[in-house]
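Quick one, probably user error.
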């Protein structure tokens, strides 16, 4: 749905009626080209993993969430001409298709099955983007970030590539629950840069992992136990790169609907420059089946399968951005 502000969004409130901890999810998604770029290379996805066509940057429609849970994802494409738009959408479609076939269609007993399916889905998505790039000269070098979450059985299961982020607002406090796979973030980890320097560094948008890379991916998997009142935000760097975390926290704390909260975050990103495409998916989790514990609730964030030891930073950076394998 498009409105007068150039916003494209989908919004819904849907029950999860299955036997595995039924959940009432209120969610919305939004994307905006920003103030500088002509094309919108971002994309969002929502899918019940039930065989129905997923929503990819599409208008609102009925979305019945069943036993397979709800898949939400954000992707930020890159590449010449319209290649970035293709990369983000092809990647999201491939993730949804694989998860439907290898999770939504099969009996589910263990979370390890879902995590394995998510990791393989991201790898298949990367292969799909790479094949498209190989087949079309105008799309050579295209790629995309990906941050995806499946809400199932009282938890959020996340898979990440690149620097699109997932945040959790819990009891008024915002937590970044993904770690950017970027050049500057690795330099911060090495002690070469400070966090403050990284935020304004000229190479802050250079990612070290992307869908479409010919090199093996390092998919970061995690599981987050959800609590009643949580708000989960997945967004591209056009949102989190322009809007400070403190403002994201303030907006999400206003108690507004997911749709209105996202509209305010887009307004903030535009007010801060709007130099990139802006995309977000926001879920509000207020179902009484989720635990509501007294006092402060610590994050139960687990990385079940940590990434394998990596090659050197510069070797991976060169191979990803056209320097070839070392």
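Nope, works fine. Designed sequence:
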């Amino acid at each position: 749905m498009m409105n007068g502000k150039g916003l494209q969004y989908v919004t819904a409130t849907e029950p999860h009626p299955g036997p595995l901890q039924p959940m009432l999810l209120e969610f919305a998604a939004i994307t905006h080209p920003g103030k500088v770029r002509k094309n919108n290379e971002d994309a969002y996805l929502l899918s019940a993993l039930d065989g129905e066509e997923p929503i990819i940057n599409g208008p609102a429609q009925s979305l019945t969430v069943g036993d397979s849970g709800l898949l939400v994802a954000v992707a930020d494409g890159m590449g010449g001409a319209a290649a970035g738009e293709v990369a983000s959408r092809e990647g999201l479609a491939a993730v949804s298709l694989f998860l439907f076939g290898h999770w939504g269609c099969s009996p589910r007993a263990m979370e390890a099955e879902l995590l394995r399916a998510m990791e393989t889905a991201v790898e298949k998505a990367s292969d799909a983007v790479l094949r498209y790039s190989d087949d079309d000269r105008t799309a050579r070098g295209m790629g995309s970030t990906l941050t995806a979450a499946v809400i199932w059985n009282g938890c959020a299961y996340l898979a990440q590539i690149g620097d699109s982020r997932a945040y959790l607002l819990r009891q008024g406090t915002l937590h970044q629950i993904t770690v950017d796979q970027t050049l500057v973030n690795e330099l911060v980890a090495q002690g070469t840069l400070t966090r403050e320097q990284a935020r304004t560094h000229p190479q802050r948008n250079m990612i070290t992992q992307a869908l479409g890379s010919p090199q093996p991916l390092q998919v970061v998997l995690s599981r987050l136990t959800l609590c009643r009142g949580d708000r989960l935000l997945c967004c591209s760097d056009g949102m989190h790169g322009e809007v400070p975390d403190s403002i994201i926290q303030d907006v999400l704390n206003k108690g507004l609907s997911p749709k209105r909260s996202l509209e305010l975050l887009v307004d903030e990103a535009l007010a801060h420059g709007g130099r990139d495409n802006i995309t977000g998916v926001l879920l509000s989790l207020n179902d009484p089946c989720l635990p509501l514990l007294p006092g402060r609730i610590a994050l139960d964030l687990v990385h079940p399968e940590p990434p394998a030891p990596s090659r050197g930073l510069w070797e991976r950076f060169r191979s990803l951005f056209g320097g070839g394998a070392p």
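Residues 8-320 form a domain with the Phosphatase 2c; domain 1 fold (CATH 3.60.40.10).
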